[in-house]
Amino acid sequence: MKQWLDEVPWDAQGLIPVVTQDFASGRVLTLAWMNREALKKTVEAGEAVYWSRSRGKLWRKGEESGHAQKVREVRLDCDADAILLRVEQVGGIACHTGRESCFFRKLENGRWMTVDPVLKDPSLIYGK
Amino acid sequence: MKQWLDEVPWDAQGLIPVVTQDFASGRVLTLAWMNREALKKTVEAGEAVYWSRSRGKLWRKGEESGHAQKVREVRLDCDADAILLRVEQVGGIACHTGRESCFFRKLENGRWMTVDPVLKDPSLIYGK
Asked: What residue in B sits closest to A107 (Cα-Cα)?
């Protein structure tokens, strides 16, 4: 029987883009990437694990910040080239800048304006 | 002055992934791609224009189906490698299968299960 992981058409780098959305607020929190192992671990553990393209390794969301993402739903799109995670965002903060969502800049009159507040100082999150 | 379009770090193919969300319902509708021209046209026209990777051309959402996406907000994420569009989805249908969202399959007990209804028969949408 074909396994569900085999139905994901991993790209040339073995990755798929993953949209993560807060289950309660509906806010789109992040766009990140997974490889096969990351998706397997995410489903097994019930917490989001991504592939960091910049660091070239698996990255359990919240491993440093404590802001883990508890998975409520995993969805696949019609042409199977993207995944949607619906999660409970621990701490209500997904972004390393201390904001709820990474999408905190909005285009206004030809400029990217920061429109969302910092909920917690990143130096307090990361202890640096 | 640096233009807002220049602040988007287009990838090696000149593209950026775009998450599109229904402004009213909060549903994540699609993940698609834009190049510089698509983003420029989207903002100028106030309706989503994507780059079709499979067809290798610009594609105004709804050009065949009538299911255009009226742009309410354009957002950029913290590391500027993804865009979020918040839109009014004309007809309430984003997917070519006649469903509200392209993310209509949900992982349940190791299987991708179709969990959302077809709202309109695609043969009626596309007249084929």
From this structure: B74
